[in-house]
Design goal:
Length: 567
């Protein structure tokens, strides 16, 4: 009798996780964490960690599966093991990865399928604030599940725009996880928005050119073809995430190099292969979860087979990063080059809208088609920079320093006050939006003028040597024209303001003397009066023109404070 009770009790405590995705239900935050705790209790090959906080005040969890039960981020790679990191519910309205990861983890543990050479890390729910904000309405275009979380986090940030700027506590915590474990793969699980078509799973894949040359061939000829063909062989033919060139997929898709605000643009800065799995919003919830499970299994299988090559190539890529001299800051899609891909679509048709009276688009699911369509996945380099030997960053910019430290960027501090000569940028043009984007008035169209300057720095200011694995991160954050630079994200905005001004009635005499003593200036001034109608009518503008050219004007107005030092 007693043994029966023990068996019954242990079955209850260790029973299979009661996932209900076949009933169109995804677990709550509490359920998911309870089940990961249950797996941690039940299996010595699994461990649930917490890492720092999130904006809602709850800790971020990381669930690690490792066949050797060591869970040591510092030693696994030297033993020939790779790591796959899976991030779920960054967009909590798209929770298929939450269910998929639980089933994937339980299957590996219960059925003893953990490869000896791959560690798996799972973030059960990244945007915890959004997961807790559960509702059944905010995914207007999505087919289930019954309830789900909300896209914004506790600060209403979209965390899949927060990787490089790291505003949220969530992002700070995941950055610690990322650098402590240094995964080979980082998979962010999502559900699509946009067009209708037959494919259940799509993927935003790493672009070969987002990696050093030593990895480009591997990504292009081994990794991506293997993932696409494996997904097809298990019944989920996959295509790149559907970003149509025009309004429907028929005329082709566009695919570029993700910028580091996204997980799949951030992870390549450290030679990690970043993927975004995107299950299709109109498929049943069960199909979305199952296709996500299939994707996770296929990445695991690929890693298991290729771990030695992955470790060796990433090591070479890291070495290359230390000595790479030229870096591309911006990319353009090449609209003249494309590959053809097989696509399973639905006929796009148009009819008159009963709401607006205008012509409206609909996809006719009774008319499925399969044909080849162009994928515009070639890019050309835009702005490029040569790396300096050092960047000098004044200690005043503490938020920037905090982020460099989070990303393991090595730097020294000046031991004494020192005048340093190097290149600096004046910010000449900057576009400002009228509404904020993810908590910032993100600058566009940044124009700079590079000048040579000698500048006083002080004991404690940072010297950042550009011979480190983190070089690409430093370039992408400190070069103001980079797509997601800290300048662009407003970390340096106070330099855009003028601090001192003048009173016109006092400055009149100075201005008069300037024109008497400087014939060239007088010529320039008079030409502007003659040719610029607004200027000619504006006394203050005319005085300001001369003030800007006087010794009274602040010399460092719009001077970007980070110096590039070239030895
Ligand atoms: Zn998403």
């Amino acid at each position: 009798m007693r043994s029966i009770i023990i068996i019954l009790l242990s079955t209850l405590l260790t029973g299979q996780i009661p996932l209900k995705y076949h009933e169109n239900i995804t677990p709550t935050y509490e359920e998911a964490i309870t089940w990961y705790k249950q797996l941690d209790n039940e299996y010595k090959t699994a461990k649930l960690f917490t890492y720092g906080l999130t904006d809602i005040g709850k800790p971020l969890h990381l669930f690690v599966i490792s066949s050797d039960k060591k869970f040591d981020p510092n030693t696994y790679r030297s033993k020939g093991e790779c790591m796959i990191m899976i991030n779920n519910a960054i967009h909590p309205g798209e929770p298929c990865g939450v269910d998929a990861s639980l089933e994937f983890a339980e299957d590996l543990l219960r059925n003893n399928k953990i490869p000896e050479n791959v560690i798996i890390g799972i973030i059960p729910a990244y945007n915890i604030g959004g997961v807790l904000n559960r509702n059944s309405t905010t995914r207007a275009n999505q087919n289930g599940p019954e309830d789900y979380g909300f896209r914004g986090n506790a600060r209403n940030l979209d965390l899949n725009r927060d990787f490089i700027k790291t505003d949220s506590e969530n992002a700070k915590s995941i950055t610690k996880i990322f650098h402590e474990w240094n995964p080979d793969f980082f998979i962010d699980t999502h559900t699509t928005n946009g067009a209708d078509y037959q494919h259940i799973m799509t993927m935003i894949s790493p672009h070969p050119l987002n990696f050093p040359p030593v990895l480009q061939d591997f990504v292009k000829t081994e990794l991506l073809p293997s993932l696409y063909s494996s997904m097809e062989s298990v019944g989920f033919p996959m295509v790149p995430y559907v970003t149509p060139v025009k309004d429907i997929p028929d005329s082709g898709l566009r695919s570029g190099i993700s910028s580091p605000r996204y997980s799949n643009g951030y992870s390549p800065l450290f030679n990690t292969f970043g993927f975004i799995s995107e299950a299709h919003m109109f498929k049943t919830y069960a199909e979305r979860v199952e296709s996500t499970i299939a994707f996770l299994k296929i990445v695991l299988n690929f890693t298991k087979k290729n771990s030695e090559e992955i470790i060796a190539l990433r090591q070479k890529a890291n070495d290359y990063l230390k000595s790479q001299t030229e870096f591309t800051l911006t990319w353009e899609t090449d609209t003249t080059r494309f590959d053809l891909i097989n696509f399973n679509g639905y006929e796009a048709e148009y009819k008159t809208s009963k709401v607006t009276g205008f012509e409206r688009l609909y996809y006719n699911r009774n008319k499925p088609w399969t044909k080849q369509i162009p994928l515009f996945n070639y890019v050309t380099a835009g702005i490029q920079v040569t790396k300096p030997d050092y960047y000098v960053l004044p200690q005043a910019w503490g938020e920037v320093i905090e982020r460099l430290e989070l990303n393991n960027i090595e730097f020294n501090r000046l031991s004494k006050d020192t005048v340093i000569t190097g290149e600096m940028y004046f910010i000449k043009d900057v576009g400002n939006p009228e509404v904020p984007f993810n908590g910032h008035f993100v600058h566009s169209k940044i124009g700079v003028e590079k000048v040579s300057k000698s500048k006083q720095f002080y004991a404690g200011d940072l010297l950042i040597p550009m011979n480190q694995v983190g070089n690409r991160y430093v370039i992408e954050t400190l070069e103001p024209q980079a797509r997601d630079s800290f300048f662009r994200w407003n970390f340096f905005d106070s330099i855009l303001e003028q601090r001192e001004y003048f009173s016109p009635y006092v400055f009149e005499e100075t201005a008069e003397k300037m024109l008497i003593n400087d014939a060239e200036l007088k010529k320039e001034f008079e030409a502007k009066q003659a040719n610029d109608e607004d200027f000619a009518k504006d006394a203050r503008a005319q005085l300001y023109f001369l003030y800007q050219r006087s010794p009274n004007f602040e010399a460092d107005y719009r001077l970007y404070p980070v110096m590039r030092v070239i030895n």
